[in-house]
Design goal:
Number of strands: 38
Strand content: 35-45%
Radius of gyration: 29 Å
Helix content: 10-25%
Oligomer: single chain
Shape: globular
Distance between the termini: 74 Å
Structural class: alpha+beta
Number of helices: 10
Length: 622
């Protein structure tokens, strides 16, 4: 009876809330009822951050919005914490104290003084509400303020306020991507900023959307002048940030004298500087391994090159710095570069900040030949720019500061996949034959760990991901790899497949393209809220050769198709040569950004490709 009463109250409460806030329930798995945060900075090194948050969880998918997640290190620590969970009727069902929090240090694969602070809130009945109040202490320097991000995917907001209090001699900068209510005032020798938002609807995810920082309401906030672990700098432009990073690199590139002699001996017979760089890069790949290290100055300063050399491991900063030091030992200059490995390819030109980059690579500016090196990978081919950084902005660190440069990327025709299938159809509808797949560039990035693996199960997994033959039996598998600066890998196999063709009377219905191409069925919504962005174009070239049984003749072949659009091209052709049907299909998808007003056009284009792939060949027994 008690459970029934609570359920009834919950249903009534939901109805009441929906009536009150209406559109805030659309696409929402959780609603932030109230969030108030105050960041109070006393000087360049110290501050407190106090937060009160009330969020209602509407369903299972919204549970993560009720969890508590923070982190600590030598620059920040949790001082106070309390929380409660309330049921639909508003009654407290659980009190949460600091003792209930999970504190975990990062361990395997990491060397760090960071630790996570978390709590997973759960309640068996929805809706329920979670309330947190906590305080963080910032110390030893402040390089950024917590951003103001009121709404999120599948989370709406009723009210949220964020206040930053600063001494009047500290300047604050911000960059907002939405119409945020921002106010500034001076009071009691403090400069006070407030950021507010209310009644923001939850954001629905859409395939091929622009990067999140364009969609999710967001205000980046950072100081102009800062100190961090006694290293002070200025963030008013990217050149200044580069100067600060350059200062962290000073005297970190010293190598033992005997090792310098070894490097010089290793490269003495090289024909040119590019060949010398390749020799040193291979030595780095063969003799060091990646370990994430977040020690020292917030993880921004690399471990000394000599230390990485001795231990044979380092993070992106340490390995890049070692590579830079080794090149310096053979009189080749290079540049340490900060870059983002995320979806954000472009740096905000008018808002330099630390949180836009999360990785480090090396630029070797040879005459008429700039080489970008990923120093954390033991297998990335020399000279190849992988898909995590191709086309991204990088902050190139020089003796005179930082300079933003864009890395090269590849055309859709270079970024291609070739598939060739030979299918020998038997009269009972089964098939046997061979298949070959060749993955170039970004396809190589994504698939080499399966194709080149010595583990047959991984190779078989790749085959199942690419061939639509449910009852396939896989025979011999052969692979190869080309590790040039335009790398590719290939896999070939023999197979047999039961019930491949459907038999009806004297007819066999054969899938003309038994390749899995699920990426063309991504648009299903009737309308579009955001622009469509295809970050990386690609080319797929497919050839399927179908050998039909004796006494059978084609009754129906797929019609030839030729589509040309602003988003890409598609063509298919069916040719009969004796008792062979040769089906050739080429799909070229262009990278680019397209207005949401053209959603129907691109949806129709992708839909035509998906429909073409599903067609069948019909053959009939004479």
């Amino acid at each position: 009876m008690k459970r029934l009463l609570i359920l009834t109250i919950g249903v009534c409460l939901i109805s009441y809330l929906q009536a009150q806030v209406g559109g805030l329930y659309e696409n929402a798995n959780a609603i932030v009822k109230e969030r108030n945060a105050v960041f109070s900075q006393t000087d360049l090194n110290n501050a407190t951050y106090k937060v009160t948050k009330v969020v209602t969880i509407l369903n299972k998918h919204g549970e993560r919005f009720g969890h508590f997640d923070e982190y600590g290190d030598k620059f920040r620590e949790l001082k106070d914490f309390s929380g409660v969970i309330k049921n639909a009727a508003g009654a407290v069902v659980k009190k949460i104290g600091k003792k209930d929090l999970s504190i975990s240090s990062f361990s395997e694969g990491f060397k760090t003084d960071d630790y996570s602070i978390s709590y997973e809130s759960k309640h068996p009945a929805y809706p329920y509400t979670v309330e947190y109040t906590y305080e963080m202490r910032m110390k030893n320097g402040i390089i950024a303020y917590p951003p103001f991000m009121p709404a999120n995917y599948m989370q709406s907001v009723e009210n949220t306020h964020y206040t930053i209090e600063l001494p009047t001699d500290i300047k604050l900068r911000y960059h907002s991507n939405f119409d945020c209510d921002i106010k500034e005032r001076t009071e009691n020798n403090k400069r006070i900023y407030t950021f507010s938002a209310a009644n923001l609807k939850a954001i629905d995810r859409e395939p091929l959307s622009p990067v999140s920082r364009e969609i999710i309401p967001l205000v980046y906030i950072a100081p102009s002048d800062f100190c961090y672990d006694s290293f002070c700098g200025n963030l008013s432009n990217w050149n200044n940030l580069g100067s600060w990073i350059s200062g962290l690199l000073k005297d970190r590139d010293i190598l033992p004298a005997d090792f310098v002699v070894k490097l010089q001996d290793m490269t003495k017979d090289a024909k040119n500087d590019r060949e010398k760089v390749a020799i040193i890069y291979k030595h780095l790949q063969d003799n060091t391994r990646y370990v994430s290290i977040q020690l020292g100055i917030g993880g921004y300063r690399p471990i000394e090159a000599a230390s990485v050399l001795k231990t044979r491991f380092g993070d992106c900063k340490g390995q890049t710095n070692l590579m830079k030091a080794m090149l310096k030992a053979i009189d080749i200059s290079s540049n340490y570069c900060a870059i983002s490995m995320g979806d954000d390819k472009e740096l905000l030109s008018d808002f330099p900040s630390f949180n836009q980059n999360n990785h480090v690579i090396l630029l070797v500016p040879l005459q008429n030949d700039s080489i970008w090196l990923e120093c954390t990978s033991a297998i990335t081919p020399f000279g190849y720019i992988h898909d995590g950084i191709a086309g991204h902005d990088a902050l190139v660190i020089t003796d005179n500061g930082g300079k933003v440069c864009r890395l090269p990327t590849y055309t859709s025709k270079q970024n291609k996949k070739e598939s060739t299938l030979h299918i020998d159809i038997l009269e009972n509808g089964s098939a046997k034959g061979s298949a070959t797949f060749i993955e170039h560039l970004f396809g190589y990035d994504n698939e080499y760990r399966y194709i080149v693996s010595n583990d047959r199960e991984k190779r078989v997994e790749y085959i199942h991901d690419n061939l639509s033959m449910p009852k396939i039996q896989i025979g011999e598998i052969n692979t190869s790899e080309n590790k040039s600066d335009f790398p590719y890998c290939s896999l070939s196999l023999n197979y047999e497949a039961l019930d491949f063709a459907s038999k009806t009377g004297t007819r066999l219905f054969i899938p003309v393209c038994p390749l899995k191409k699920n990426n063309y069925n991504i648009f299903s919504a009737p309308k579009r809220n955001f622009d469509i962005e295809i970050p990386d174009g690609f080319l797929e070239s497919d050839t399927i050769v179908i050998q039909i049984p004796e006494m059978y003749t084609p009754e129906s072949l797929p019609k030839d198709i030729s589509l040309t659009t602003d988003f890409g091209t598609f063509s298919s052709q069916s040719v009969l040569e004796g008792n062979k049907i040769i089906y050739i299909q080429n799909t070229d998808i262009f990278s680019g950004r397209y207005s949401k007003e053209r959603y129907k056009e691109i949806k129709d284009f992708f839909g035509e490709i998906a429909a073409a792939i599903k067609r069948k060949v019909v053959i009939k027994k004479s």
